[in-house]
Specification:
The complex is a heterodimer of chains A (111) and B (116).
Chain A (H helix, E strand, L loop, with lengths): L2 E5 L2 E5 L4 E8 L5 E7 L5 E7 L5 E3 L5 E5 L4 E6 L8 E9 L2 E4 L3 E6 L1
Parallel strand pairs in A: 2-11
Antiparallel strand pairs in A: 1-3, 3-8, 4-5, 4-9, 6-7, 7-8, 9-10, 9-11
Chain B lengths: L4 E3 L2 E4 L5 E6 L6 E8 L3 E9 L2 E5 L6 E5 L5 E5 L8 E8 L11 E2 L3 E5 L1
Parallel strand pairs in B: 2-11
Antiparallel strand pairs in B: 1-3, 3-8, 4-5, 4-9, 5-6, 7-8, 9-10, 9-11
The chains are: A mainly beta (111), B mainly beta (116).
Chain lengths: 111, 116
């Protein structure tokens, strides 16, 4: 069965610094990969998704992720963190229409 | 287009009681999935309903049950509540099962259950 591992349950960056949230996946077939974001007291919303087209995927709010098959990774990045990026981020993998989420990474942005 | 609506948003119960949570999906969406979110266990899949049929089920005891109505609205029920059932219960809807190939699940804001 497919699974995802998010490295680091908490990540703290300064405002303006690079954001890097790590995700590695396991899948027996070419996967569909996703990043979701959860702001405090809200549900999850889709940030971006990889569905076997371009390996570099651009999402909302300046985030992007690169699919690297050789490394089985789908890390999320943003060049410059903003205070409003503080949230919990979930990586997810879908195989045969069965979605599995990672444990989440809480991003803190320091002024 | 209205989003996914979950009711109630907050509720407090005592051990041994039962609770029913409701989820109204986005109009036209036929799939509803339920997740339990806790600080210790993260986001755990409970079950998914598609066109009134349970399509998939996670590893939860039989005290957790659900159903879906013909209008795609879904309810989940937890009987004989335990302290460990305190959590945020999230509902997600999609056009196709598990979001289909696009994987897009639309989440509600959740129902926060506290068991005392």
């Amino acid at each position: 069965a497919q699974s995802v591992t998010q490295l680091g349950s908490h990540v703290s960056v300064s405002e303006g610094a690079l954001v890097l949230l790590r995700c590695n996946y396991s899948s027996s077939v070419p996967p569909y990969l996703f990043w979701y974001v959860q702001y405090p007291n809200q549900g999850l919303q889709l940030l971006l998704k990889y569905t076997s087209a371009a390996t570099l995927v651009k999402g909302i709010n300046g985030f992007e992720a690169e699919f690297k098959k050789s490394e089985t990774s789908f890390h999320l990045t943003k060049p410059s963190a903003h205070m409003s990026d503080a949230a919990e981020y979930f990586c997810a993998v879908s195989e045969y229409n069965d979605m599995r989420f990672g444990a989440g990474t809480r991003l803190t942005v320091k002024p | 287009k209205a989003g996914v609506t979950q009711t109630p948003r907050y509720l407090i119960k005592t051990r041994g009681q039962q609770v029913t949570l409701s989820c109204s999906p986005i109009s036209g969406h036929r799939s509803v999935s339920w997740y339990q979110q806790t600080p210790g266990q993260g986001l755990q899949f409970l079950f998914e309903y598609f066109s009134e049929t349970q399509r998939n089920k996670g590893n939860f005891p039989g005290r957790f049950s659900g159903r879906q109505f013909s209008n795609s609205r879904s309810e989940m029920n937890v009987s004989t509540l335990e302290l460990g059932d305190s959590a945020l219960y999230l509902c997600a809807s999609s056009l196709r099962a598990s979001g289909g190939a696009t994987g897009e699940l639309f989440f509600g804001e959740g129902s926060r259950l506290t068991v005392l």
